[in-house]
Each structure stands twice: as structure tokens, then as C-alpha cells.
Amino acid sequence: MSVESNTSAESPNDRSEAQPGAETTHGAPNFLRNQIRDEIESGQATTIVTRFPPEPNGFLHIGHAKSIWVNFGLAEQFGGRCHLRFDDTNPAKEEQAYIDAIQEDIRWLGYEWSGAVRFASDYFDQLYAWAQHLVREGKAYVDDLSPEEIREYRGTLTEPGRPSPYRDRGVEENLDLLERMRLGEFEEGSKVLRARIDMAAPNINLRDPILYRIRHAHHHQTGDKWKIYPSYDFTHGQSDAIEGITHSLCTLEFEDHRPLYEWFLAHLPVPAKPRQTEFARMNVNHTVTSKRKLKLLVDRNVVDGWDDPRMPTISGLRRRGYTPASLRKFCDMTGVSRAANVVDIAMLHFAIRSDLEDNAPRAMCVLNPLKVVLTNLPADHDEVFEVPGHPAREDMGTRRLPLTREIWIDREDFMEEPPKKFFRLAPGKEVRLRNGYVIRCDEVIKGDGGEIDALHCSVDFDTLGKNPEGRKVKGVIHWVSAEHGVPVEVRLYDNLFLEEAPDRDKDADFLDHLNPDSLVTVQGIAEPALADAEPEARYQFERVGYFCADRHACRDGKLVFNRTVGLKDSWAKIQKKQG
Ligand code: ATP
Ligand code: MG
């Protein structure tokens, strides 16, 4: 297990690569790219056809983003095409809502599938005909053993399996039983159709695998037409063949299924011979990438739905403020290999931070407001500073920052008894208001309980755009006019799990490792320009971090910003300290 280190990701070279709008889709070489390039150069392959085959039983997560990037990206790079095919053989867990969300996520990532959306269920008639074909060839049979018996007869890694007593049924009887299974004459679990391969095969997947199960279930695409449903193994390769897929790219857990994938292609009159190649699943630390576990978080209301900004789902990352380009860059940075690996979530943070650093307009927002009265400004003082939207992007224009007698600053930028290296505001000390004047703290105003209510400060008017005479002022703090600032809700998101590998221990509940502070909500005040923030608009709140207007909550004049990522990686630092 290798963990990519954050320090290498933050090398100056990486940073300078991230130009505005830089396309990172086909960056570094990886073994799949090399393999396909070799095939094309040697004439072994002409057109590349890949597919992304999600099961519509949940929302897509960051691991799927990798698979999408691999499949769509390779097809795009080599001038081929990529199909979207829902692998919908298990009607019990699938839903139309997932089908819709998955399509939205793929498009949002910037990819478009070739042709219509496809479904494995489109091929159910063909698959059934092929099942009958295998029966006629003596290569499949109806088995009456119970699921438990089938498991028991299958043997183990060290012991061969035993043949079912139903293995030698005649062709006519098998055809008749299969047809009656299809018509719904038998109870669920009472019969299955199995391939007749080899009960002693060292690879357990070849010990007469199940082709069809009885399921009296309503299917989102085929309705009540089918009472039997094909297994994944009996569906996938044949669907690839029907669609003319050339490269069936999947994750390593299917490696042991490849002989079976090839067995079906060899024993059925399929129109093409796709080839399966496996690569390692991508895992990210401090999160889980399993739809089943993510569904649990949703069902138990641990999070606010599949697209909660803490979820590693594509829609959650989107709502958190990630850009499609940053996720594609992340996939490229983390590469493709056959070795299992866990990626440090800091790399994901790096990918979005470098994108937003270049592309997010700047704004000021005070998260923990402390009132400052600028005593040498008149009550009606209303000066406006015109400042750049982004320090390096003239195309982002300027914004208007009003300065009034009363302003807000962040409580953390003031200390009554500061330590030596504290360069922000303190009694008798000076600090620069970002984009404005240098001010000095003359008086601390306290309430009855001794709490600090406000600061009285004075402005040095001779400091706009220049250093004060005869002294150095090191600190710069952000601020917002009290009169013109707009109230905003700010949601400070952090990793959902404290533990680096929340699901490492198979016997423990991964929910025990939840971070209780994964969401802290504060009421802040932002500069007036943010009143017009569109849903999903992204900003750098200067000195604070990167934020995104929530796509659901920003409506009817309400402003809600989600913290996408901090300015610096404080997480890695905390980890280092603790470790
Ligand atoms: P999960 O375990 O989260 O349910 P899955 O593999 O069952 O994932 P599918 O909908 O079957 O989910 O996956 C669609 C495609 O995405 C498959 O080709 C699968 O190999 C790929 N995929 C899923 N998770 C990852 C991952 N973490 N890294 C890379 N590819 C993945
Ligand atoms: Mg699956």
C-alpha cells in the first residue's frame, strides 16, 4: 500500500503547470495508454471502443471518476468512442433516480457518451437465447440445489467442488425447465441455470457458475417481463461483444473472472471478441469509496444526502466546489496501475487548490466578526476602493470595496496580549486593512462580563498603497464594511473520517470513525459584491480559503458558502504533529 505524499504533489513544478484553463486530460503515460498506443502503432487495433458500465444502485464516487476518466479519456485520446452502459441486472437495488444522477455526473465531468444510453437489460432477449444455446450444446443445466447447497458443493480454494446431482439432466428437460423459470412457474431460490464447465477447476469462478437466478421483481427498464435475471458474469462480456467494445477496462477484482469472460465469448456465437484488461481501484484515505457504505451514510442521515459536500461522490465534490478540471487533473496525477494503492486526500485538495488559485476571483469575508470603529472617520464616511478581482487575471476586472466608519474584522486577527511573532492587531499596534489603510488599535471596548465588544482604531491616511513613514507594518488583515457587508452562512467542511483507513478493520463499524467536526457552520459577513453570487460561484476568501456558493441553499436572497479547501494544507500538518 503506497500513500502518495503531499509534499511531492506541492512541488513548484506542479504548481507552475496549472495554467488557467490548462487541459490535463491526457497527461502522464500509464500502462493502459502505452498498451493501446502499441496496439495502434502495430496495427493490431484500429478503432478503440470502451465503455463505462455503472450499476445504477447509488451515486458515482471519486473511484468512478477514475474509471470514467480512464474509459472516456482513452477513447478521446485515440479518436475512438466510449459507451455508457448501465449494468442493470439486479432490479432489487436499482433506481431511476440513480440512472439520472449518473448521467448528470458524467456530463458535468465533461464527457459525452457515444450514441444512446445503453442498458445491459436491452440485451436480455439475446442473453436468454444464448443461455438456450449453451443448454442445447450440453454446456448449461438447471440446478435444483438450494443456494446454501450450491455454496457447499462448490468446494474451497484447496478442495475441488462436487458435481450437483442435477448436472446431467437431459437437454430437453433443461430447456423446458429454463423456459418455465422464465415464465415464473418456480419460486425464487428454487432453481438456477448454471454453466457446465468444471467443478474441479482451480479457479472457483469456473466451477459451474450461475447464469440465471429466479427473481420475481419489477425492473426499472423491462417492467414485469422477466422472472429470471442473468448474473453479472453472464451479462458483461456478451454485452461488450454486442456493442463491439474493443477494450473492456475494469478493476482488479474482476481479474479472476476473466477466464469466465473469455469462456462465454469462446462458446457463444458472439459478433466480436472484446478483451478485458484490469487496473487497480483507486482508494482515497479519510474516506470510503463503496456505494454500499456511502448509501449507509445517506440512509442513516449521517450526511445531508448523496451530494452532501463531505461525500466523496462526484455530486458531493461538485457541491463542495470542485471543478471538473480539478477532478480530471487529480485522476491524471494519481495515474493508473495494477498495484493497489491509497491516494492521500491531500492530493485531491492540491488539485482543486491549484485550479482555484488561478481561476477563482478574490473576495473578503469575515467568519467570526469583531466590530472595529475607525474613530477618525466621520459617521457618513463612504470611500470606495476599486480593487482587482484577481491579482493575476486582468480579465476578471475589478470589484468595489466600500470603507465606512464601522467595519468587521475577524476575532482571530486581534489579541489583547499577543505573543512576540503576532503581526496582526493588538492594543497600541498597527496593521494594514487589505486593499486599504494602516490602522492602529487605540482602545479595547469590553462588556460587563469582560468580553471584547469592539475595538476603537484610528486610520493613518498617509498609507494608501504605500508604507507608513518611518516604521514597518507587517500584518495585513481582511475586513468588511459593517454598513455594506452582507450576512452569509459559511459551512466549514472537513474530512468525514478521522481515521486514515476508516474501513480497514472488517469487524469494526466504519461509522465509529466519523469526524464529529466534519461540518461547523458559522454566520459571517462578506463584502457587498458577494450579494450577487450565483449558485456554484467559487471564490477565494482572502486569507481564509476557497469557497463555493451552495447550489441548493443559495436562493431567495440567502447566501450560503461551502468551504471547498483551505489555503494551505493544515490537515497534513496536523497529522504530522499527531503522528
Ligand atoms: P462500489 O463498490 O462502490 O459499488 P462498483 O465497482 O460496484 O463500486 P460499479 O457501478 O459496478 O461500482 O462500477 C462501474 C465501473 O467503475 C466499474 O468498471 C468499476 O470497475 C469502476 N470502479 C468502481 N470503483 C472504482 C474505483 N475505486 N477505482 C476505479 N474504478 C472503479
Ligand atoms: Mg458493482
Written description of the protein model:
- It is built from 15 helices and 27 strands.
- It is an alpha/beta fold and 579 residues long.
- The strands form seven sheets. The chain has a seven-stranded mixed beta sheet with strand order 12-25-26-27-23-24-13. A seven-stranded mixed beta sheet has the order 21-18-19-20-14-17-22, with no helix packed on it.
- The protein is elongated and about 100 Å long.
- Bound molecules: adenosine-5'-triphosphate and magnesium ion.
- Residues 53-55, 63-64, 66-67, 87, 250-251, 281-282, 289-291 line the site of adenosine-5'-triphosphate.
Structural features:
579 residues; 7-stranded mixed beta sheet; alpha/beta; binds adenosine-5'-triphosphate; elongated; single chain; binds magnesium ion
In DSSP terms (H or I, runs of 4 or more residues), the helix count works out at 15
Coarse morphology: elongated
Q: What Rg is obtained from the alpha carbons, in whole angstroms?
A: 30 Å
Number of strands: 27
Bound small-molecule species: adenosine-5'-triphosphate, magnesium ion
Q: How helical, in percent, are the residues?
A: 25-40%
Bin the strand percentage. 15-25%
Mean pLDDT: 93
Counting helices, strands and paired strands, the structural category is alpha/beta
Major beta sheet summary:
7 strands, mixed
Strand order of the largest sheet: 12-25-26-27-23-24-13
Poorly predicted runs: 1-25
Distance between the ends: 18 Å
